[in-house]
Design a protein that fits this description.
By secondary structure, the protein is mainly alpha-helical. It has five helices and no strands. Helix 1 crosses helix 5 and helix 2 packs antiparallel against helix 4.
């Protein structure tokens, strides 16, 4: 295992993911953005976070923007990530929790 960031991060940096995985991820994120409008709390959290980030788009506008994201964008973004901390989980009592 690559403990410098995990194998999934390394795979993304190297473009090792299928078109199906990419499309599924985009579809799931779009679905999550559309569900923001399902509750007042989610709407509030979305717009407060957007305000703090200096952006002025709706959840539906963000979902539409995902249609412009490419595999190359994901790879470029993954390569800009620097792992800060790696945690190792250890069981107690002979491996039992």
């Amino acid at each position: 295992m690559d403990f410098r960031g995990g194998t999934q991060t390394t795979d993304m940096k190297n473009g090792v993911f299928t078109d199906e995985e990419f499309e599924t991820a985009v579809r799931n994120i779009k679905s999550s953005l559309r569900s923001v409008t399902d509750s007042i709390r989610s709407i509030n959290k979305f717009y407060v976070a957007g305000y703090l980030e200096g952006k002025d788009t709706s959840p539906l506008e963000d979902a539409e923007l995902l249609d412009t994201v490419t595999r190359e964008d994901v790879i470029r973004c993954a390569n800009s990530i620097t792992v800060h901390t790696v945690y190792f989980l250890k069981g107690g009592n002979g491996g039992e929790w």
